Amino acid sequence: MYLTKEEERILNGEAGETLRQAIEILVALGDIYGADGLIPIKSAQIAGVSYKTIGDAGLEWISDLQGRVKVPAILNPAGMDLEDWERLRISPDFAEKQKLIIQAYEKLGIRCECTCTPYTLVGFDVSYGDHLAWSESSAVSYANSVIGARTNREGGPSALSAALLGKTANYGFHLDENRVPKISIDVGFSLNRSDYGALGYVVGKLVGSRVPLFHLRNIPDADELKSLGAAMAASGAVALYHVNGATPEACRLDFEEPAEKITIERNQLDDIYESRRKACREPELITLGCPHCSAAELEQAAELLKEKKVSKELWIFTSRELAKRYPEQVRTIEKSGAKVICDTCMVVSPATNNYSCVMVNSGKALAYVPGMCRAEAVYGSMEACIEEAVGRTEKKAGGSY
Q1: Are 310 and 337 in contact (CB under 8 A)?
Q2: Which ranges carry the Phosphomevalonate dehydratase large subunit-like domain (predicted)?
Q3: To pair with 106 at 20 to 30 A between CA atoms, which of 247, 276, 295, 383?
Q4: Which residues contact 9 (CB under 8 A, 6 or more apart)?
């Protein structure tokens, strides 16, 4: 792996211990994966933020680092709403540790907006062909697939190292040859919004980490693509996918049709709605926003909850920036008794551990909640989730599980 003279000096410790550790991490990864050198990046998105997932050891490591990031950098969701943590029954001890983690990152010059959808934030722009060092699985999938930027699925330490150096190792999805589809997915029926999360959950298990090329009967919008990619990244390890007629590289590049093909049948998606519904008798908690809700999803939730009252806990997760940008939608949602929660999500917050059965409209959450929150998870559309939350006496017809 080639290093410039400046990079060699950093590796020798001449720029301080923090940068020496950072470049050592990136060089080790580059050596493992055959990188030819380091390349500049436009931005970084850093996982390893929730105290639930990194604990005291992670807090200690981050707190010992010195220096400032060289590129715009932002954090993944934390373990709690940083401004209103008490309403989800977060313990004071957890809250204190979580605040120390945020302060340690802030000291390094990182924007402490905690979201898995950094591409929605003002001043954190990403364009086609940009090289990034992002680490949250759904954000990586969105950047690679929907935007056409280039990033590997970095670990928290490697994304932080890249932010401190302004560079990452040149391997994996930074290279043209690794962005070519390896398997074709044919879906011979039309899809509704929540079907994309179910489809991603099914396909992720089938393709693992390979790059799929989808042939769909309808053109998905950005939120549907977000759901599809997030689910595949969670149930499998898909970090890049293409959709004919929809995603930028599928539209710009002349891909050769992969030799291996999979056909998805409607009953495979129906099984996601039905089999998981049988996992528990009644969901105790309903959650939306994994990945964080977009402006359009907040609008949809507000419209569905207008003039209704919830009879079960309903948590709707979004970035703090979007919550502040759309106060009317937030007010409408919270007037129903639902909670709009920022900075965190149901997966990385210990608050979810207080429930034994959680209903979600996210294939990503469906994959992660059982293992990370020790709760059963059931799947439904946003409409079905809200119908469940408002109670049977207020339900309308048409919300499918």
Answers
A1: yes
A2: 1-387
A3: 295
A4: 15
Supply the pTM of this predicted model.
0.95
Q: How many CB atoms lie within 10 A of CB 282?
A: 10
User: Which ranges in the chain are annotated with CATH 3.30.499.10?
Assistant: 281-394
Q: Is 292 helix (H, G, I), strand (E, B) or coil?
A: strand
| Location of structure tokens 């990033």 | 151
β-strand pairing of 260-264 with 242-243: unpaired
* 8 A C-beta contact, residue 242 and residue 250: yes
Question: What does the block give as tokens for 366?
Answer: 């469906």
**Burial 29-65, CB ≥16 within 10 A → b, else e:** bbeeeebeebbebbbbbbbbbbbbbbeeebbebbeeb
pLDDT (tens, 9 = 90+) of the chain, 401 residues, equals 999 999 999 999 999 999 999 999 999 999 999 999 999 999 999 999 999 999 999 999 999 999 999 999 999 999 999 999 999 999 999 999 999 999 999 999 999 999 999 999 999 999 999 999 999 999 999 999 999 999 999 999 999 999 999 999 999 999 999 999 999 999 999 999 999 999 999 999 999 999 999 999 999 999 999 999 999 999 999 999 999 999 999 999 989 999 999 999 999 999 999 866 676 768 999 999 999 999 999 999 999 999 999 999 999 999 999 999 999 999 999 999 999 999 999 999 999 999 999 999 999 999 999 999 999 999 999 999 999 999 854 444 333 43
CATH code, residues 281-394 = 3.30.499.10
- Gyration radius of the chain over CA positions: 21
d(CA 199, CA 212): 13
Residue type, 75: L
